[in-house]
């Protein structure tokens, strides 16, 4: 540290230019490490007018082994306005479980946004989308944050 003498005969220690640079470099490295391991994924897909009238359409994407997803947004495009529900699907083929996640109001483009870890998916867990009327699903988008399971705390 650089030392200076002020008029009152007191000594103060100030950081040198190199010390400031070192502290800022350490802080930058710490901030970069906080974000390491998090990856944004977006799955968008058009589907050929799939009926969702009381029938689950299981979104065919799930975290790979050793990863966890924080679901940030789900949006769908329907052929007609209807109330829809989002469930936690148990596998990629069997439809919804008894775990409802959200009910979306009647709309042609229903969507829902989740906060940081409000909805997480682990390996083997899927989202299932169900409609209550005569609407067909024509497209959807799913946006998630992915991180290795041991770094899931970084999603907060």
Would you write up a description of this structure?
The protein is mainly beta. It folds into 2 domains: 2-35; 39-155, Jelly Rolls. Helix content is 12%, strand content 51%. The chain has 1 helix and 11 strands. The chain has one helix at 17-35, and strands at 2-5, 11-14, 39-51, 57-58, 67-78, 82-89, 96-107, 111-113, 120-121, 126-131, 136-148.
Outline of the structure:
This protein has one helix spanning 17-35; strands spanning 2-5, 11-14, 39-51, 57-58, 67-78, 82-89, 96-107, 111-113, 120-121, 126-131, 136-148. It has 156 residues and is mainly beta. Strand 6 and strand 7 form a beta hairpin.
Shape: elongated
CATH class of the largest domain: Mainly Beta
CATH A-level architecture of the largest domain: Sandwich
Q: How many DSSP E strands?
A: 11
Which sheet architecture does the biggest sheet show? 5 strands, antiparallel
Alpha-carbon distance between the termini? 38 Å
Question: Which key terms come to mind for this protein?
Answer:
single chain, 12% helix, 156 residues, Jelly Rolls, mainly beta
Write the layout of secondary structure elements.
Layout: E1 2-5, E2 11-14, H1 17-35, E3 39-51, E4 57-58, E5 67-78, E6 82-89, E7 96-107, E8 111-113, E9 120-121, E10 126-131, E11 136-148
Antiparallel strand pairs: 1-2, 3-11, 4-10, 5-8, 5-9, 5-11, 6-7, 6-10
């Amino acid at each position: 540290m650089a030392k200076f003498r002020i008029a009152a005969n007191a000594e103060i220690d100030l950081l040198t230019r190199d010390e400031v640079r070192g502290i800022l470099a350490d802080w930058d490295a710490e901030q970069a490490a906080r974000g390491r391991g998090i990856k944004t994924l977006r799955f968008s897909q058009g589907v050929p007018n799939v009926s969702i009238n009381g029938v689950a359409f299981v979104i065919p994407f799930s975290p790979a082994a050793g990863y966890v997803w924080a679901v940030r947004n789900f949006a769908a495009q329907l052929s007609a306005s209807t109330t829809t529900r989002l469930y936690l699907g148990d596998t990629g083929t069997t439809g919804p479980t008894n775990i409802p996640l959200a009910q979306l109001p009647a709309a042609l483009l229903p969507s829902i946004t989740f906060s940081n870890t409000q909805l997480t998916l682990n390996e083997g867990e899927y989202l299932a989308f169900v409609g209550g009327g005569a609407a067909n699903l024509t497209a959807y988008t799913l946006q998630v944050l992915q991180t290795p399971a041991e770094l899931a705390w970084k999603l907060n």
